[in-house]
Amino acid sequence: MSLSQRLSNHFSACRLVSLAKLKAASEFPNRDTRGPYLIIQHGYQPGDPAMQAADYILGRSGAWLGTHWFIRLPVPERRKEFIFSTVAEVMALMESLTSKVEVIRAKPDSVQEDAQADEEMQKAIAES
Asked: What is the pLDDT of residues 33-80, one digit of tens each?
């Protein structure tokens, strides 16, 4: 049994996931050879006394969102906030983060109650 870590904004705690194999990868302008990308981390939210770990996706806002919400976001919003075309974009975001971890804890307003998970994206995350 491995112990989970508290979510961190340090680059060494994150995984960079290439989405180059997705059908829609070519729709990302100016992407680099292995892009687009997600920044993923497995851990628990700061202040969670149960230390319940899950996978989270980092957005351009600097906040982490649980993958269970991410895969239900409308595609345009998901692309705008959470998917990066180049490693340079990822590095710029990571360098700008403070040590204070922000987590989007509630269901995003744009996620409908009956929203279906994007199975292709869910598979890409699971295989990372």
From this structure: 999 999 999 999 999 898 999 999 999 999 999 999 999 999 999 999
Q: How is 59-98 classified by DSSP, letter by letter?
A: -TTSEEEEHHHHTTS-HHHHHHHH-BSSHHHHHHHHHH--
Residue 72 domain boundaries: 11-126
Strands 102-104 and 54-58: unpaired
Model pTM above 0.85: yes
Question: What separation in angstroms does the CA of 3 have from each of 43, 44, 52, 55?
Answer: 9, 10, 10, 14
Is 1 inside any structural domain?
Answer: no
Mean pLDDT of the chain: 92
> Contact 94/14 with Cβ under 8 angstroms?
yes
pLDDT score for 112: 81
Of 38, 41, 2, 5, the closest CA to residue 22 belongs to 38
Q: Which two tokens stand for residue 64?
A: 């982490």
Q: How many domains does the chain have?
A: 1
Residues 43 and 4: beta-carbon distance below 8 Å: yes
